[in-house]
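Today's session is about reading a structure prediction critically. Students often jump straight to the picture, but the first step is always the sequence itself: look for stretches that repeat, for charged clusters, for runs of hydrophobic residues. Only then move on to the predicted structure, which in these notes is written as discrete structure tokens rather than atom positions. Here is the chain we will use throughout the hour.
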Amino acid sequence: MTAPHSKSAFSGSVDVLAIARQALATEIEGLQALHKALDHNFTAGVEKIHAMKQTGQGRLIVAGIGKSGHVSRKIAATLASTGTPAYFVHPGEASHGDMGMIAQADIVLMLSNSGENAELSDLIHYTRRYGITLIAMTSNPESTLAKHADIILQLPKVPEACPNGLAPTTSTTMMMALGDALAVSLLECMGLTPDQYKVFHPGGKLGQRLKKVSDIMVPLADMPLLDEGATMDKAILLLSEKNLGAVIIIGKNKDLKGIITDGDLKRHMAPDLLAKPVSAVMSPTPRTIEASLLAVKALDMMTGTPGHYLTSLIVTDNGKLAGMIRLQDCLQAGLG
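Below is the predicted structure for this chain, in token form.
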């Protein structure tokens, strides 16, 4: 049951909107400082991780404790979803056996704003003992973590959004953003295509939006095809038989000549309709789309003009007739 609305105990004495805006402004300033602070160390980190990926052997281990640990999990997930093999290792669990998950071909990305968390020491020493590349994300270049790291991704020293300057806020926002920058840079380095990206996102809304036209189109074998020399009585029978809302008119070489839709029938309704040649009724320049394009592109083409929706598009493959994609197919696939 929802509690009845009542005036807040601090109402009138605290401007919560002003506080929220100030917190966001502080974090924005942190991101702007991070933007300016990016240097050759970031490039070196990306190159090191990309080189590891190209060997097909190593993985990126992301580690952190406390709030940095939560950010580490997110960064590892983002990297994994964009083509960089990555996973999170909890430093405490690493000290109790999970260290064995880390191999010499791996790279460790360790997050700590202060760089002095005692829980990180065992994992730091492990990387040094076995020659595992250690990348530090920290704001303290004089910290234990930074001094032992091979590459330092230094965060600028800026105020936390917390009024007491204690709760990790701006620092974790910068870590999150820097992790995104790493993921996007690595994605660009490997030239990840939508098809490859789809491999990492087969389910959910994202997976649906990465479907290609060829994934949901009506294939050529199931299409209502009619020769351009036919008459409308045959077109109407085929339209009813296939129940796809359209009949495709083709030439002798199965090349596309036109399309007849339910709308065309309504526009040409007359006593002599059945005897008319299909060429007199069809739309001779139907909209087409390539089979290799994303299905959301087809949806945009069909619904992009307000008040003038298309119910279907002809699908081609390198210019040859390949199928048909319908608006209802796109909607049923969850693209809308």
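Discussion point for the tutorial: The radius of gyration is 30 Å.
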